[in-house]
TrEMBL record:
Belongs to the class-III pyridoxal-phosphate-dependent aminotransferase family. This is Aspartate aminotransferase family protein. The keyword Transferase applies. The lineage of its organism: Bacteria, Bacillati, Bacillota, Bacilli, Bacillales. It comes from the Bacteria. One of its GO terms (molecular function) is transaminase activity. The keyword Transferase applies. PROSITE patterns: AA_TRANSFER_CLASS_3. Its cofactor is pyridoxal 5'-phosphate. Keywords: Aminotransferase, Pyridoxal phosphate, Transferase. PANTHER family: GLUTAMATE-1-SEMIALDEHYDE 2,1-AMINOMUTASE, GLUTAMATE-1-SEMIALDEHYDE 2,1-AMINOMUTASE 1, CHLOROPLASTIC-RELATED.
Length: 465
C-alpha cells in the first residue's frame, strides 16, 4: 500500500469529521494553513511532545502550533501560571490596565535591543499591521518594501509575493498577489526585494528611497533560512542612509533563536520589532516595540482617542491621532502564560540544551537521508529548521522552489504514517519536551519513513534493509 493509501486508512475518522466540518465551515478549517490534501488530521489530545488524533494514532509533534509551543503541550509551569492568574484575579479579563502588562513590557524592553517601549495586541498579524502604521505615520511615506517569500500575516498589504513564481536570478522580483480580493493599490505600493542579495536590494532601495516608509522582513526567512550577516548589516546601513524604518517581524524567531530573537543573535537592531507565537505561551498574543519616539505616536494622552466623542482634531478632514486599540490587548491569561514561558527559558542552560537537541535531530536526519541516497538537507537556526530536498545551498525562497518539492511531500506523508507530525512542506520546531529519548525515537521513525520512499537498498550488518 502506498503512503497515500496508508494515510487514508489510518485517518478514517479524521476524514469523516473533516467532511462534517465542511458543511458548516468553508473548507472544513478555520484557517487555510490548517488544511492539506486529502484531509487534515483532527487531534483530540496532547501531552509534552506528543499528539493523539481521533483515530487514536499518536505522533511526535514537530508542528507545535507552528512554533508557538516552545515548552511543549501542557507544561506544568505554564498551566500553573494560568490557574494562579485566574484564581488571584478572579476573572479572565478586566478590560482595564493591570500589572502583568507592565511586567511583560519590562521583560521585553530588557531582552530586545530594538524595544524601548511596547504595545500588546492579539496576534502576530496585528503586530505587523501596527508596525506598518507606525512607520507610515513616522516617515510620511506610503510605500512598503518587503522580501520575496516572507510572510507577515493574512491581510491585504502583505499578501504579496509570499509564494512567488520561479524567476531568473538576474531579474528583480516583481509584486505577485497571493489572494483574490486584494486592491491593486497594494501591488502598486509594495516594493518586493530579494532576500540575501544585497546588491539587487541596494539598487531597488536607491530607486524608491524617497517613497518607502519601511522595509519589513523576517530576519530569518520563514524562521529557518538564515541571513548572511553582511546582508543584514548592509540592509541596516541602507535603511538608515535613506531614513527608511527597518521592521523585524520576529513572530517566528522571537524566543526561538534566543531570548533576544534574531536581533540579539546577529547584533543588528531594527527600528520596530513585531512579536507573537512563543510570547503567548500557547495563547493568542502579539507585541510591537521600538524606539520610544516612534512608539509614542500611538499614545492616547491628551484625548487622542477616536472612540471618545470630542477627541482632538485640529481641522476638518485632518487627524493627529495614530489609533491602536483592541478589547483583548494585554490579555492577563496570555501574558501570565507568556511570562511563565520566558522565565523557564531564562534558566541556565535551557537554550543550550534545546539547541543541542535540535542539532542532534538535524544531524541524524541528514545522515539517514545520505545513507538512503535521498538528496536533502536541514536548514535552520536555533530550535527551528526545515528539510529542503536539494544538495545546493539554500539562501532564499527561490532555492526552495528549485528543490524537489514532490519528494518532500511524499516523505512528509510517509513520516506522518510513522507517527511524526508536521504539516506537509512545513518547518520543524522543537520544544523543551523533545528530550534525548524523544529525539532517538524520532530518528527511528524517520528512518522507517525514508525506507518507504527511497529506492536504495541499504546494507546493514549483512542484511538488506
Amino acid at each position: 500500500m502506498g503512503t497515500d493509501g496508508l494515510y487514508a486508512e489510518k485517518t478514517t475518522k479524521s476524514a469523516q469529521l473533516h467532511l462534517e466540518a465542511s458543511k458548516w465551515i468553508p473548507g472544513g478549517v478555520t484557517a487555510n494553513i490548517k488544511y492539506f490534501d486529502p484531509h487534515p488530521i483532527v487531534m483530540k489530545s496532547a501531552s509534552g511532545a506528543y499528539l493523539t488524533d481521533v483515530d487514536h494514532n499518536q505522533y511526535i509533534d514537530y508542528n507545535l502550533c507552528y512554533g508557538a509551543l516552545i515548552m511543549g503541550h501542557g507544561h506544568p509551569r505554564v498551566t500553573t501560571a494560568i490557574q494562579e492568574q485566574l484564581a488571584q484575579m478572579g476573572t479572565t479579563i478586566f478590560g482595564t490596565p493591570h500589572q502583568l502588562e507592565t511586567e511583560m513590557a519590562r521583560v521585553l524592553v530588557d531582552l530586545y535591543p530594538g524595544i524601548e517601549t511596547v504595545r500588546f495586541c492579539n496576534s502576530g498579524l496585528e503586530s505587523t499591521l501596527l508596525a506598518i502604521r507606525l512607520a507610515t505615520a513616522w516617515t510620511g511615506r506610503k510605500k512598503l518594501a518587503k522580501f520575496e517569500g516572507h510572510y507577515h500575516g493574512g491581510y491585504d498589504q502583505v499578501l504579496i509575493s509570499v509564494n512567488p513564481s520561479l524567476r531568473n536570478p538576474e531579474d528583480p522580483p516583481a509584486p505577485q498577489l497571493d489572494s483574490r480580493g486584494i486592491p491593486d493599490y497594494y501591488a502598486e505600493n509594495t516594493i518586493v526585494l530579494p532576500f540575501n542579495d544585497l546588491e539587487q536590494t541596494a539598487a531597488i532601495l536607491k530607486k524608491y528611497r524617497n517613497e518607502i516608509a519601511a522595509v519589513m522582513m523576517e530576519p530569518i526567512q520563514g524562521g529557518y533560512i538564515p541571513p548572511d550577516l553582511s546582508f543584514l548589516r548592509g540592509l541596516r546601513e541602507l535603511t538608515q542612509q535613506y531614513r527608511i524604518l527597518l521592521i523585524f517581524d520576529e513572530v517566528k524567531t522571537g524566543f526561538r533563536v534566543g531570548l533576544s530573537g534574531a536581533q540579539g543573535r546577529y547584533g543588528v537592531t531594527p527600528d520596530i520589532t513585531a512579536l507573537g507565537k512563543v510570547l503567548g505561551g500557547g495563547f493568542p498574543v502579539g507585541a510591537v516595540g521600538g524606539k520610544k519616539e516612534i512608539m509614542e505616536m500611538c499614545s492616547p494622552s491628551g484625548g487622542a482617542d477616536i472612540l471618545t466623542p470630542g477627541s482632538l482634531r485640529p481641522s476638518p478632514g485632518y487627524t493627529n491621532i495614530l489609533f491602536h486599540s483592541g478589547t483583548y490587548n494585554g490579555h492577563p491569561t496570555a501574558l501570565s502564560a507568556g511570562l511563565a514561558t520566558i522565565q523557564a527559558l531564562q534558566e541556565p542552560g535551557a537554550y543550550h540544551q534545546l539547541e543541542e537537541h535540535t542539532r542532534k535531530l538535524r544531524s541524524g536526519i541528514e545522515e539517514i537521508l545520505d545513507r538512503y541516497g535521498v538528496a536533502g538537507q536541514t536548514v535552520g537556526v536555533g530550535s527551528i529548521f526545515n528539510m529542503v530536498m536539494t544538495d545546493h545551498p539554500v539562501h532564499q525562497v527561490q532555492d526552495v522552489l528549485r528543490s524537489d518539492v514532490v519528494m518532500r511531500k511524499k516523505l512528509d506523508f510517509s513520516l506522518i504514517n510513522e507517527g511524526i507530525y508536521m504539516k506537509p512542506l512545513n518547518r520543524f520546531s522543537l520544544s523543551v519536551a523533545h528530550t534525548p529519548d524523544v529525539i532517538m525515537e524520532t530518528l527511528e521513525r524517520f528512518e522507517n519513513g525514508v525506507k518507504k520512499v527511497s529506492k536504495k537498498q541499504v546494507i546493514t550488518h549483512g542484511r538488506n534493509q
